[in-house]
Amino acid sequence: MLQTAHEQLLLLISTPVYIIVIGLEIFMSHLRVKGLYSFRETLVNIYLTLVNAGIDLLFRGIYAGLILSTFYGMRFSDFSDHPYIYWVLLFLLEDFVFYIEHRIDHYCRLFWAVHVTHHSSAEFNLTTGFRSSVLQPLYRFVYFIPLALLGFHPADILFMYSLTQIYGILVHTQAIQKMPRWFEAVFVSPGHHRVHHASNTIYLDKNMGMCLIIWDRWLGTFQAEIPEEPVRYGLVKPIEKPHHPWYIIFHEWRAICRDLRKKTPFFTKLKYLLMPPGWSHDGSTLTAKQMRKQLKQQP
Hints:
By secondary structure, the protein is mainly α. It has a domain of 170 residues. It is 58% helix and 0% strand. Helix 1 packs parallel to helix 6.
């Protein structure tokens, strides 16, 4: 199963929109001397999304055409007589599923090693939205399995994911400072997502939603942008070779291998894979939660 007709239509519509809004953001950036874009970072963003798309296309026949279709064949509900309910529920459930996936990506180092590429840029602009978690297509489909069992067709699941991805890309901007209060109570805004990409201790692992911010508000991962705490983009510890095509994808895997080579018991090694990023058996590095606790203890 390659791209469906609906996905191809989305691509046809969204591509000129991306070109226009990115062009406008670049123009405004230079006009206001903000320097939001650099050639090398933009090139890395394009490179990562192309590699991600290539892996997705290669693997799609397995996860969509075989795995998801198999589970869809075992579905225990049917919304075919209620198209409006079908699409509204699919949007809500898929956005929630993305929240769960995204939260696990941040709280489990094994998956953070994949997702870290999306956060590794010290810049934040619309092309950052294309800075993909390259290897994510190899496991993302697992989160779609409950949707297939609920009776949502694999093609519709992938279409809805592509649709919500468009919104997820467009919130990667510094051009919009605030949205109306009612909007920010329900939807992810650019301000919310700037927080998500911050390396400030108070902002780490916050605002995981794709389209809806309600999941973060309900499940304790919401953090508003604070005017007195300007966002610093990128990683807590910047990577050594930010433009190396191989290193940018696998640098965290190398760090994991270094930790696994330490003379520690088996279950400690397992924790280096499954605990949140920054966890260490000797306290030499800290998780985001530990860093926030340490920050609160400062006079």
